[in-house]
């Protein structure tokens, strides 16, 4: 193959790589742009364009260069690449929760894992950041605005958090998990929480339950608000009372305490819809303490369909949300912004009801 890159001859002055002067130091154990170029039979400039993801290379030449990179085991110099692309090759995931909750909540853990996998396939590093206190938020904001990351994912946001506004006004690429509650309109990915809750309640009505309660999520989080709305809408359509409501924070302990409160106030209830699987697991513990059989006395339906739903006794009927698809969609939306493409439209993914032995 001669020194051409889809119509660009070798004699053409180098492109973006020219801002990194001089050849890379040679090393027997570290292939350079020059050795890759010689292996592929193209110019150093062409190799740099391929490595930096430039579209100004033909598919044929790109394949030849990538094959040479693989054969030689070439690893790009990230520091030099960042001078060329003005990118860091990393994005931040900001979770507005304490560390303990991040690592014990199966939904948060599954999202972090799925995002990491999706980003790794794109050669982008994920930086996990957790924040609760104001002093932590100030330090984190300085980091995010300081050019250390190319974009930001926001997850588990609570109403009134100033970070979405700050990032929006600063022009930082952002994608939020969940529909924004405030007036800042950011690109986001969510599931149809209202419909998911309606599916759960519709099933409980269909199996003959008459006194249905809910353990709702926090009223300052969109998942808590939307799932409670879905619960109430479906009961309204069935002409049933919707006042059997207790609140939790999506944790197992809060679900147990909320279930105890519901049993104290409504001892005749015969079904409960829980806004998370962890809260449903806590509700099952409370029902056992009160010697209520599930599902014979009280049917229970959760929300998430993560591993915990299979580990409860009995296994949990639940609303399934596509965690991996959510993570992949968020990654696509953020990296599109980083690449300078127009702001993406919000993505609302579907849910489905998974029936097991609890109701």
UniProtKB/TrEMBL annotation:
It holds the Pfam family LacI. The keyword Magnesium does not apply. Keywords: DNA-binding, Transcription, Transcription regulation. Residues 1-32 are annotated as: Disordered. Signal peptide: none annotated. Coiled coil: none annotated. Residues 11-31 have a biased composition (Low complexity). Residues 31-85 form the HTH lacI-type domain. It comes from the Bacteria. This is LacI family DNA-binding transcriptional regulator. SUPFAM superfamilies: lambda repressor-like DNA-binding domains, Periplasmic binding protein-like I. GO terms for molecular function: DNA binding. The keyword Thylakoid does not apply.
């Amino acid at each position: 193959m001669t020194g051409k890159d889809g119509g660009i001859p070798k004699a053409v002055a180098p492109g973006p790589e020219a801002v990194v002067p001089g050849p890379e130091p040679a090393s027997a154990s570290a292939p350079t742009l020059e050795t890759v170029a010689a292996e592929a039979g193209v110019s150093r400039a062409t190799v740099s364009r391929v490595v930096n993801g430039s579209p100004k290379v033909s598919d044929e030449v790109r394949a030849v260069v990538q094959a040479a990179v693989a054969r030689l085991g070439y690893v790009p110099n990230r520091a030099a690449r960042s001078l060329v692309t003005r990118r860091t090759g990393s994005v931040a995931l900001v979770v507005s929760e304490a560390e303990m909750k991040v690592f014990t909540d199966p939904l948060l853990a599954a999202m972090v894992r799925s995002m990491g996998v999706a980003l790794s396939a794109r050669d982008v590093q994920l930086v996990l950041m957790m924040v609760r206190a104001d002093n932590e938020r100030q330090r984190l904001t300085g980091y995010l605005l300081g050019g250390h990351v190319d974009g930001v994912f926001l997850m588990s946001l609570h109403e009134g958090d100033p970070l979405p506004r700050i990032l929006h006004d600063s022009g930082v690429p952002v994608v939020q998990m969940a529909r924004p509650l405030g007036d800042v309109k950011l690109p986001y990915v969510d599931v149809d929480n209202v419909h998911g809750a309606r599916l759960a309640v519709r099933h409980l009505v269909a199996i003959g339950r008459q006194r249905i309660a809910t353990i709702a999520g926090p009223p300052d989080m969109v998942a808590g608000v939307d799932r409670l709305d879905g619960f109430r809408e479906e009961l309204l359509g069935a002409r049933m009372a919707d006042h059997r409501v207790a609140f939790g924070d999506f944790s197992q302990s809060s679900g147990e305490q909320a279930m105890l409160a519901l049993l104290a106030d409504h001892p005749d209830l015969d079904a409960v819809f829980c806004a998370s699987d962890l809260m449903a697991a806590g509700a099952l513990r409370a029902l056992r303490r009160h010697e209520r059989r599930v599902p014979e006395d009280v049917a229970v339906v959760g929300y998430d369909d993560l591993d915990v739903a299979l580990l409860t006794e009995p296994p949990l009927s639940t609303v399934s949300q596509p965690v991996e698809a959510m993570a992949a969609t968020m990654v696509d939306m953020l990296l599109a912004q980083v690449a300078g493409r127009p702001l993406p439209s919000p993505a609302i993914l579907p849910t489905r009801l998974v029936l097991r032995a609890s109701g």
